[in-house]
Amino acid sequence: MSFVQSTIKNTRSLSGQNKASATVTTSGLLYDLTSGLLTEATSSSTRNTVVGVANLTASAADAVTQALCIDLDPEDVWVADSTNNSNTGHNGQAMIIGANGGVVDNTGTTSAVGVVVQVGTFGATTDKKILVRFITV
Q: Which residues contact 116 (CB under 8 A, 6 or more apart)?
């Protein structure tokens, strides 16, 4: 499960983010910057902590201390996996990240602390894929 850019409104920019050498990063997953280090986004992630989508996969054995992340632009549209079947009735709803950084929790109710807003659906409803934009502060 992951985030894939669907529409890029601006030039894609990448930034190197610090991480603990043992932290595994997976391309396509959303990450937070917590206490100055990269961590996988979770349902506790906020607009203030999400920093980007990993552009590469790094194992703990790689022992790298930085990972490249795709910077989040509020104009970019992303295809995201969703917890529930996609539903056009959810368009405009703010949503939180699911249990891990690769899925959006589309409950059908807008969240005051949502990190993304649904702007459309993608594929069949049972594919559980939606189009989202990141809400930035």
A: 78, 80, 94, 95, 97, 104, 132, 133, 134, 135
Q: Which residue has the tokens 């703990």?
A: 60
From residue 33, how far is each of 18, 38, 40, 63 by CA, in Å?
A: 8, 5, 9, 18
* Cα–Cα distance measured from residue 51 to residue 101, given in angstroms and rounded to the nearest whole number: 11
SS3 61: helix
Residue of 107, 99, 131, 135 lying closest to 4 (CA atoms): 131
The predicted-structure confidence for 67-112, as pLDDT tens digits, reads as follows 999 999 898 999 999 999 999 999 999 999 998 899 999 999 999 9
Question: Are the beta carbons of 87 and 122 closer than 8 angstroms?
Answer: no
Hey, CA dihedral for 37, 42, 44, 48, is it positive or negative?
positive
The pTM of this model reads 0.90
Strands 66-71 and 94-97: unpaired
- Whether 39 and 32 have beta carbons less than 8 Å apart is answered as yes
